[in-house]
UniProtKB/TrEMBL annotation, chain A:
Gene designation: frdB
Domain 4Fe-4S ferredoxin-type: 133-162
Protein name: Fumarate reductase iron-sulfur subunit
Free-text comment on the cofactor: Binds 1 [4Fe-4S] cluster. Binds 1 [3Fe-4S] cluster.
BP terms from Gene Ontology: respiratory electron transport chain; tricarboxylic acid cycle
Keywords: 2Fe-2S, 3Fe-4S, 4Fe-4S, Iron, Iron-sulfur, Metal-binding, Oxidoreductase, Tricarboxylic acid cycle
Location of the 2Fe-2S ferredoxin-type domain: 3-91
UniProtKB/TrEMBL annotation, chain B:
InterPro entries: Fumarate_red_D, SQR/QFR_C/D
Cellular component GO terms held in the UniProt record: membrane
Protein name per the record: Fumarate reductase subunit D
Record carries keyword Cell membrane: yes
Length: 236, 113
């Protein structure tokens, strides 16, 4: 099996170039295993991020045959011909398959991603019913792998867009019964939910079934009602 | 975002969202009536005109057409801007799309009333 890997070595390559590597065509190998095989035995200069190998850490997202994928969960047996491995689209490439995640981290921090409380400190834990947990649990499954950003045509065209994962993260707190924060000003803006044109690719790309597109559309309804009805200050 | 766009976007999106819901719920019924029952002779043209004699039915039809057109306008606006890469002409494209939707609504209303 041929792995066609995008290489970019600052100071050496003017722009990314492809390099072909022959890897054993093993049934039980994910793309990440093949990359590690190259790194360990063929070419130690190849750079890429990875950590857990089991779809939890969100580090190994890359563009595999044009699609944003976790390389630890995408197997060689899924392909017949040469497999093209490129860095995630929509992000600046630092080296080879490593992209700059700083803009993404900045977007995450814009949505106040923690429980906001007002008034006195609680005397004990907050109990939640299963229904209250279910209201936001799905959005808490995000592993920050950035596949949704790479899949989103709006984000790729406009890097100022807050993006799917950040808005889903905001909804994870908005829909939490313990949260008293208000994220309206950040979310109800052109860079927030109104930038989304509901292409839905974020949800297709998400390896954890978070459904960021749903999170965004739900907040659009909240934001639209609050904008249209000035007296409607209800919490999302 | 300009204050104008910030004010307009929620309304436009509500029209889009409302249009999607209303179309999904009612268009199958309309297709059944106009595309199947009338050609099959189950319903006749006088039946339909009798239905339209009720002002509530005509009002509902105008509302349905308006929402469906604004839904389409919103979708066409963004599909055009993203696929053709012409987002810098957003104002012109938006005015054209929503203008056509408004025109279609006015024409529908003038035919029915």
């Amino acid at each position: 099996m041929i792995l066609r890997v995008s290489r970019y070595r600052p100071g050496v390559d003017a722009e990314p170039v492809f390099q072909d590597y022959e890897v054993p065509d093993r049934d039980d190998w994910a793309i990440l295993d093949a990359l590690n095989h190259i790194k360990d035995t063929v070419d130690g200069t190849l750079s890429f991020r990875w950590s857990c190998r089991m779809g939890i850490c969100g580090s190994c997202g890359m563009t595999v045959n044009g699609e944003p994928k976790l390389t630890c969960g995408t197997f060689l047996t899924d392909f017949t011909g040469p497999v093209t491995v490129e860095p995630l689209r929509g992000f600046a490439v630092i080296r080879d398959l490593v992209v700059d995640i700083d803009p993404f981290l900045a977007n995450l921090s814009k949505v106040t991603p923690w429980l906001v409380r007002e008034g006195e400190e609680p005397a004990s834990e907050f109990a939640q019913t299963p229904e209250q947990l279910e209201a936001y649990k799905q959005y808490s499954m995000c592993i920050n792998c950035m596949l949704c950003y790479s899949a989103c045509p709006v984000y790729v065209l406009n890097p100022d867009f807050l993006g799917p994962a950040a808005i889903a993260l905001a909804q994870r707190y908005n829909l939490d019964s313990r949260d008293m924060g208000d994220r309206f000003d950040v979310l109800s803006s052109e860079e927030g939910v109104w930038g989304c044109t509901f292409v839905g690719e974020c949800t297709s790309a998400c390896p954890k079934h978070v459904d960021p597109a749903e999170a965004i559309q739900r907040y659009k309804l909240t934001a639209a009602l609050r904008s249209v009805l000035p007296f409607s200050r209800r919490r999302s | 975002m300009s204050p104008l766009r910030r004010r307009a976007e929620p309304y436009l999106w509500l029209l889009f969202g409302g249009g999607g819901v209303v179309s999904a719920l009612t268009l199958p019924a309309l297709v059944l009536i106009l595309g199947v029952l009338v050609p099959a002779g189950v319903l006749s043209r006088p039946d339909l005109t009798a239905l339209l004699s009720n002002a509530v039915v005509r009002l509902a039809l105008v509302g349905l057409v308006m929402l469906a057109l604004f839904h389409a306008a919103h979708r066409i606006r963004f599909t055009a801007e993203e696929l053709l890469g012409v987002a810098r002409w957003d104002r012109f494209i938006a005015l054209t799309c929503y203008g056509l939707a408004l025109t279609g609504t006015v024409v529908t209303a003038s035919i029915l009333f």
